[in-house]
Amino acid sequence: MNWGSWEKFFAMGGYALYVWSSYLVALALLIAELAFLALRKRNAVGRIRAGGTAGRADR
Amino acid sequence: MSINWFKYSSPQTFFPLAGKLALGFSVLALLACSVGLYLGFFVAPTDAQQGESYRIIFIHVPAAWMSMFLYVVMAFWAGLGLAFNTRLSGMMASAIAPTGALFTFIALWTGSFWGKPTWGTWWVWDARLTSELILLFLYFGFMALQAAIDDPRRADKAGAVLALVGVVNIPIIYFSVKWWNTLHQGASVSLTRSPSMAATMLTAMLIMTFGFWFYGIAAVLLRARCIMLERERLSDWAAEYAKGTA
Amino acid sequence: MMAALRCVIYRDLLLAVRRGSDVLTVLLFFVIVVSLFPLGVGPDPTLLRTIAPGVIWVAALLASMLALNRMFASDHADGALEQMLLGATPLGMTVGAKVVAHWLVSGLPLVLISPVLALQFDFPRELLGVLVLSLVLGTPVLSLIGAIGAALTLGLRGAGALLSLLVLPLYVPVLIIGAGAAEAAASGLPGHAQLLLLGALLIFAGAFAPWAAAVALRISVE
């Protein structure tokens, strides 16, 4: 598919709003998911460190 | 040589494996999506009827397929956990739900943005979009139920019953919605592509599906690791791991 | 065993009659919700006639859902539920009996009053039969599916709202087919296909839902 120029690519034949909104929202959500997971893991590790040996016994 | 099938059924052994797998699948996902998007935007031609707006299918259809696939996988793990009382199976099911819901939302959002230029309205009550909407509610129900139950074991089992009931109902829901859609012929529009899709379009879509699948596996494994760290936080291996990561 | 099940049904009915307000609340809710729709969409008779089956079905669905919490909660609170779990009667059958009692109290009254409400919408008299029959077949399915939800959310905070979220997506096929029966009849087609499908759903739900609810009860109580 030869777009001819970058302007034409971004314009998406007049459908720029729909195509790019879809792609950007999808990308944002997927990145947000990964970022949230990284944060969640950091909190979990922090909680383990802070917990010390309390209650560890024979679990 | 006897294979220990259950070696990875404990969080302690599965945790590091999940980490390595997640990394591997992330790389694969990135590769597949790059190839798929390149094919989709720079090789596939313009559509005769829909112009450039059809290019949304490269994320709409893979997201929709993944949303349904992940629900079935979630129900599988949940059922396994219910039948064999294995902790890790329940954790896997819980890890899948948010990613599945995310794909469902992406399918709905992109479906809406595809429908607007094609059919003129932001929402079309066609069979697949309506079924996706109900699927989103099923995911939310599963997540809400697990969130409302404090005891993780009860949450796992209750979620399992709900997921299994849901998976049995999904075909019933889909067919009743499809029937409802054809009866009310006013909206005889459908967002499914006609079978005569250019080969390049189909290839790009399939590669993107794999890309989403690999991403899904990676995200689920990462979330499963978080769940393991949270639930097993009093265990020794978790303490070792926490000490290890600076 | 039949005697035990008869006892369960009789006990539930007796409790419902003694706390009569529960039954009436559900019925009044149904009536009020149905009456709200003309106020919302305007009194145009043609429009009302078109939406009548859908409105009545949605209202019946919501009203039947209101009463679901009660199915197991009060027995759980006073310990009777644990006796049922320990008893000789299979739990699935006990749950089935409770569902029957629930339907007699929260489903049947809705079915009986639905013709009156349909007339309020100027729904054609000759089609009332199909509407009522669809409700007769459909409301027990709602009670059966609802039992699973009630068992899963037993004793949880915010159980009512959570129950709705869990159960409403599962209600969708029943709603589509049930309302579809009367709508088909209204456009001149026989509603037989829908009614037969409702019957099939009823048999399917009747076979599996009590068992699923029993599994859920054991999970919730232990």
Features:
heterotrimer; A: 2 helices; 71% helix; B: 7 helices; 77% helix; globular
Q: What class would the helix/strand composition of chain B place it in?
A: mainly alpha
Uncertain ranges of chain A: none
- State which percent range the strand residues of chain B make up: under 5%
Main structural class of chain A:
mainly alpha
Number of helices of chain B: 7
Spell the H/E element sequence of chain A: HH
Summed over residues and divided by their number, the pLDDT of chain A gives a mean of: 84
Quaternary state, please?
heterotrimer
**Domains counted in the coordinates of chain B: how many?**
1
**What is the string of SSEs of chain B from the N terminus onward?**
HHHHHHH
- Helix content, binned percent of chain B: over 70%
Shape estimate of chain A? rod-shaped
Count the beta strands of chain A: 0
Could you give a short account of the major beta sheet of chain A?
A: none
- Computed Rg of chain B: 20 Å
Strand content of chain A: under 5%
Strand runs of chain B, count: 0
The average pLDDT of chain B is 88
3D structure, described in words:
The complex is a heterotrimer of chains A (59), B (246) and C (222). Chain A is mostly helical and 59 residues long. Chain A has a domain at 16-51. Chain A has two helices and no strands. Chain B contains seven helices and no strands. The longest helix of chain B is centred in the N-terminal third of the chain and has 33 residues, at 11-43. Chain B has helices at residues 11-43, 57-84, 87-119, 127-148, 152-183, 199-231, 236-244. Chain B is globular, with a radius of gyration of 20 Å. Chain B has one domain (17-44, 52-228). The two termini of chain B are 39 Å apart. By secondary structure, chain C is an all-alpha fold. The longest helix of chain C has 30 residues, at 192-221.
